[in-house]
Amino acid sequence: MYKILKDLALANATSLTYEEVADGVRTGSLKLLDVRTPEEIADTGSISRSDFNIPVQEIEEAIFLSNTEFRQRYHFAKSALNGRNVAIYCRSGNRMKKAYWILYQAGYTKLKMYPGCYNEWSRKQGR
Question: Which one of the listed residues 90, 103, 111, 117 is annotated catalytic?
Fold first, then answer.
């Protein structure tokens, strides 16, 4: 049953194309949650200075932090994850799906996914 629920949640998630992400970044209408480690981001870069970063391995703990502790650790308000224009991404998609499922179960159901992730972004940006 658990796998069925997970598969349904992922299948029904709003997925954004490269063009939609590029437009959202250009206009500032889309916020991005990068779930890679800070070290990986430092090595490879991010999609236009991603707005938020929570490494996927920290998400389960992070959602149970108080609002104050969360802001101190991640430098943004936990409530921002409830926004309608927040998309999750990683390098290739696996961590994005894991992060989405964890956050979805915790009630963050408005999040979107960018399945092309950083690999597609960097390829299309000529990096």
Answer: 90
Q: Is 117 a catalytic residue?
A: no
Starting at the earlier edge strand, list the strands of the sheet with 14-15: 14-15, 112-113, 86-89, 31-34, 52-53
Which tens digits make up the pLDDT trace of 35-65?
999 999 999 999 977 789 999 999 999 999 9
Using a 10 angstrom Cβ sphere, with 0-12 exposed, 13-18 middle and 19 or more buried, the burial of residue 84 is exposed
Helix (H) or strand (E) holding 34: strand 31-34
- Closest to 78 in 3D by CA, of 88, 68, 93: 68
pTM: 0.90
